[in-house]
Design goal:
The protein has ten helices and 18 strands. It is α+β, with helices and mostly antiparallel strands. The protein has two domains: 196 residues, T-fold (Roll); 96 residues, ApbE-like superfamily (T-fold), CATH 1.10.3980.10. The protein has an eight-stranded antiparallel beta sheet, with helices on one face. It has a three-stranded antiparallel beta sheet with strand order 3-5-4, with no helix packed on it. A three-stranded antiparallel beta sheet has the order 8-9-18, with no helix packed on it. The longest helix is centred in the first third of the chain and has 24 residues. The radius of gyration is 24 Å and the shape is globular. Bound molecules: adenosine monophosphate (AMP) and magnesium ion.
Length: 351
């Protein structure tokens, strides 16, 4: 009797197991990884979502690029009609009503400027133009005349307040009085990070909890790939197609990498790159060639990676250790490497 019962239940259980397997396997429309790459903010932006339907993913991708393009349209120095460009070219003393977003980004930039003792400075627009890095085209880069750099340094040193006066506008909004000339704003070291925070927030609001957005050296992560961590790589600063370190990450995190290999030209036997040291008016020679920062917010990761790059190994380490929730990985041209204990990532063997 018992044997007969078993004989009947075993095939039934097998059928059930097969059905379960088939059902799970047959659900790819909600389990698939969707990836879209488009050009935005002068770089390739890759958006990956997990566990979305094709239309949820489409909607999410559109939200991401809408946010990034909206930030670019006011923050980019390369767009003549952007608010940053209009302020840069306004007459000294002009009063501008500035929107909340502008205040958020500029105040965050000034805070990092303060924390890094001026190594990060959002007022390098004119200097970056002198070096040919202001318009985003590295081929036009050139070493400026020494007198021009000295003149810039002189003006800047006379105005440690950065040239901006915060004032109240007639209708109660935040407004600024512009200092003019040498203080042309360049938010290239922070605006992308801010845009990525907004992009990830809008993905989450649309119900997408698992996503990875990568834009050049910046990335922001949420959730996982169906229980598997997102796997990310950090580029080798001297070997173009090689990864130097990798990390497996689950949950919310932002990471930004600044390197002297991103935009540069060679002159006088030296790498003339796009991260300038505001104290010398020239490409940073701190010895660091790659800096990665991990934080909760991309706006901070973006600005801090640039700041630590300029500060160098000793001061950079000290700043990372001083700040809560900030982890870093630093590579020196002499081969020295350091990462903070909480940094999520492993060096790749042989890298
Ligand atoms: P990142 O690649 O994130 O390190 O940012 C580099 C960009 O930030 C450059 O292309 C410039 O637009 C801007 N930048 C360069 N040097 C500095 C600096 N010392 N402080 C703030 N922004 C900078
Ligand atoms: Mg940066």
């Amino acid at each position: 009797m018992r044997g007969l019962h078993l004989k009947k239940t075993i095939p039934l259980l097998m059928l059930l197991a097969f059905l379960c397997f088939w059902l799970v396997w047959k659900r790819p429309s909600h389990q698939e990884l969707h990836t879209t790459t488009r050009l935005a903010m002068g770089t390739l932006v890759k958006v990956s979502t997990w566990g979305t339907t094709a239309s949820e993913d489409d909607n999410g991708v559109n939200l991401v690029f809408a946010k990034i393009n909206a930030v670019e349209s006011w923050a980019s120095k390369q767009i003549p009609s952007s608010l940053v460009s209009r302020i840069n070219h306004a007459q000294k003393g002009t009063v501008w009503d500035v929107p909340e977003e502008w205040v958020t980004v500029v105040k965050a930039a000034l805070e990092i400027r303060h924390l890094s003792d001026g190594a990060f400075d959002p007022g390098l627009g004119y200097l970056l133009d002198l070096w040919g890095f202001g318009n985003g085209v590295a081929e036009e880069a050139k070493i400026p005349e020494t007198e021009k750099i000295s003149a810039w340094l002189d003006t800047r040193n006379k105005q440690p307040d950065f040239g901006i006066q915060w004032v109240q506008s007639t209708h109660g909004n935040q407004a600024i009085q512009w200092g003019g000339f040498s203080y042309e704003l360049d938010l290239g070291g922070i605006a992308k990070g801010y845009a990525m925070d907004l992009a990830m927030e809008s993905l989450k609001r649309s119900g997408i909890a698992n996503a990875l957005i990568v834009a050049g050296g910046d990335m922001i992560i949420a959730g996982s790939k169906g229980g598997t961590p997102w796997r990310i790589g950090i580029q080798h600063p001297r070997e173009h197609d090689k990864v130097m370190a990798f990390a497996e990450i689950t949950g919310d995190m932002a990471m930004s990498t600044s390197g002297d290999y991103e935009r540069f030209f060679m002159a006088h036997g030296e790498r003339q790159h796009h991260i300038l040291d505001p104290k010398t008016g020239r490409p940073s020679r701190s010895g660091l060639i790659s800096v990665s920062i991990q934080t909760a917010k991309s706006i901070q990761a973006d600005a801090l990676s640039t700041a630590v790059f300029v500060l160098g190994m000793a001061k950079g380490k000290a700043l990372i250790e001083k700040l809560d929730g900030v982890e870093g990985m630093l590579v020196h041209e002499n081969g020295e490497r350091w990462k903070s204990p909480g940094f999520k990532g492993q060096w790749l063997e042989g890298s």
